[in-house]
């Protein structure tokens, strides 16, 4: 019997309420690191352990991930999900936390680039670097530094370095939440430049925020998106059902034609999860776990996703988390304060994209900051590393 105590435990699949004086069976809140039963009430393989979503143990996969958690490989590709992160079957010991080239490079989407627990890495990069190892940023496998200025002559377009991405067949879904930061305005123009240069097939959706950030949506972004993308973008804030339906139609057409979908996730996972749920419900012939790639770079975006939606996206797509584009790390530094943006702003204003950048700079003045950090996801999809494009000025060299 519970006395003088009440609480709510919620999840995507169940809700339990305990009131004073009532004896109900409820999962107890747990402290991270202390295992509680994972209650799966709807049989989807995911449940609630009293404090967070959890993955119901599936026996027979024969491996555990770092920390002793079961690594569930549902598609037999050697990689799985342990309820918290991508894992590799048979990888019992987590790699040491450092940045040398001996770290195990986990390539969860098979695009040749992965994550070693500290930074983005390239599988098999350079002579003598065997698969599963990474090369430190700015170094070859022999340890010699490479300069973006000499890696590719200025003015040339960088080629797509992701062998699993087919620019003629695959679709890039560009998602912008516009809630609350205005950096999406700069990212929208940068994405247009990359799209033009690499001749990408894209679908642009703005307002892809979650319920936790919906009330911080910036309506001024709509004029900005029209200035950059004309009438070709979808507004998921004002018409979420219509935008989900448009994405489902476009994605399934690409999948039916043999292509894959690559999502540059510039916001929470809620919108993407809705699209994938609809595809799985109506088109079971498509293996979304293998053919829809979701690239996310932001902890904030994940933290502002509905827990059930983030879990669903991770379980039903090839979900890849890369280093945050807002910080100096293994992704390009596309977030510069005004005093440190070099000649980029003046070049932008005099380029063939002057109108688009003008609208973006009116939306977010570069005297405050220059920020198109979400574009690191597009760089990852195309397989363009920091050995080619390291910062905003390198970006300008190749795309203006």
Description:
- This protein has about 400 residues and is of the alpha/beta class.
- About 30% of the residues lie in helices and about 15% in strands.
- It has twelve helices and 16 strands.
- It has helices at about 150, 185-200, 220-230, 240-255, 270-280, 290, 300-305, 305-315, 345-350, 355-365, 375-380, 390-400, and strands at about 5-10, 15-20, 45-50, 55, 80, 85-90, 115, 120, 170-175, 200-205, 235, 260-265, 290-295, 320, 335, 370.
- The strands form six sheets. It has a six-stranded parallel beta sheet, sandwiched between helices. The protein has a two-stranded antiparallel sheet with strand order 1-2.
- The protein is globular, with a radius of gyration of 22 Å.
- The model is unreliable at about 1-35, about 55-70, about 90-105 and about 125-155 (pLDDT under 50).
The helix fraction, in percent, is: 25-40%
CATH class placement of the largest domain: Alpha Beta
Number of continuous helical runs: 12
* CATH topology term of the largest domain: Inosine-uridine Nucleoside N-ribohydrolase, Chain A
Distance between the termini: 70 Å
Describe the strand arrangement of the main beta sheet, using strand numbers.
11-10-9-12-13-14
The helix-strand sequence is EEEEEEEEHEHEHEHEHHEHHEEHHEHH
CATH architecture of the largest domain: Alpha-Beta Complex
Question: What fraction of residues sit in β-strands?
Answer: 15-25%
User: Could you give a short account of the major beta sheet?
Assistant: 6 strands, parallel
- Report the radius of gyration as a whole number of Å: 22 Å
On the 0 to 100 scale, the average pLDDT is: 75
Poorly predicted regions are 1-35, 57-68, 92-103, 126-154
Question: What's the β-strand tally?
Answer: 16
